Amino acid sequence: MHLKSCFLLAVFFTFYFTNAQEEYSLWEKSIPGQIKSDEVKEYATGGTAEEILRVHQVTEPTLKAYFPSKELANGAAVVICPGGGYRILAIDHEGYQIAEWLNSLGIAAFVLKYRLPNARIMKDPSVGPLQDVQKALRTVRQNAQKWNIDPTQIGIMGFSAGGHLAASLASHYQVNVYEEATVISARPDFSILIYPVISFDQTMTHSGSRENLIGKNPTEAQIAYFSNELQINKNTPPTLLIHSVDDEVVPVENSLAYLKQLKKYKVESELHIFSDGGHGYGLGRGGTHSLWSKNAENWLTQILKK
After folding, report:
1. What letter would DSSP give residue 93?
2. Virtual CA dihedral for 212, 218, 220, 226, nearest 10 degrees?
3. CA dihedral (149, 151, 157, 163) positive or negative
């Protein structure tokens, strides 16, 4: 083989395996609480320079794995929950792009395409996403040796409604939401919540996320159960919160309420509030909020040392 061809082939394989990706079905057998429906089929919209990529009507949840190069890998991993108001998944700028950024830090990343609440395909729409995120965390921990991951350094990360799901895992990891005997813990070792929906209290919640998950007329018990600031205890994982003052979709009071309770229970925590950014900015649009990823990198460096 020509020397130049050998070089190009080597470059190709180096590039390919640096960010090797594979998408795994989340549930090996039956999906808990599933209702079969020919009417509900997954589809995507957007994905252009003008419109973000949106995934709709997820019926088959998956984990898409992104692995860092061997030279950078530090053994840590993060499961990522994209946002979208429990209506769609903003799976690119709050999923795939975030996974690539984490890979640049040496961290393995797993983008969770979770089921969106839908009574046509779920017996209990409010619990479907929590079932998926518990299973996702357990899957990464179960395959830690195979994927060269430290099972004590697996975190959860979420954006907007995905931040609500991530916080729900951090506070309900011990609740048995599906029938599958397992000794593998679903507790994340840390959580990163980006402009998250935290509370379902009407004074601060994102009404769309609340209605999509628990309906238009929820009980007080449902509201309290999914108001994650009320579910914190001393075993809640260390948490980093990112929010913007000018967020008119999910008020910054969500992160403030969560931080207050983290402090009460002496859970290691950190909050960065930016003056700009609004909502749904992913890695940033150019204002001061674009610094959040560097703040997160610094925080992760400290957390992963422990």
Report:
1. I
2. -20
3. positive
Instruction: Specify the pTM.
Output: 0.93
- Cα–Cα dist 299/5, whole Å: 43
Domain ranges (residues) in the chain: 53-303
E strands in 152-229: 154-159, 190-194
What single-letter amino acid sits at 184? Answer: I
Handedness of CA 198, 200, 205, 209 (dihedral sign): positive
DSSP codes, 248-269: SSS-THHHHHHHHHHHHTT--E
3-class SS of residue 135: helix
Helices 128-142 and 161-172, packing angle to 10 deg: 70
* Length reported for the chain: 306
Give the containing element (helix H, strand E) for 90. Answer: none
Task: State the number of CA atoms in the 13 A half-sphere of 130 facing the CB.
Answer: 23
Superfamily of domain 53-303: Alpha/Beta hydrolase fold, catalytic domain (3.40.50.1820)
Return all residues near 275 (Cβ < 8 A) that are at least 6 apart.
Answer: 244, 245, 246, 287, 288
**Chain Cα centroid distance, residue 291:** 20
Backbone angles phi, psi at 10, to 5 degrees: -65, -40
Which tens digit of pLDDT belongs to each residue from 71-114? Answer: 999 999 999 999 999 999 999 999 999 999 999 999 999 999 99
pLDDT at 15 over 80: no
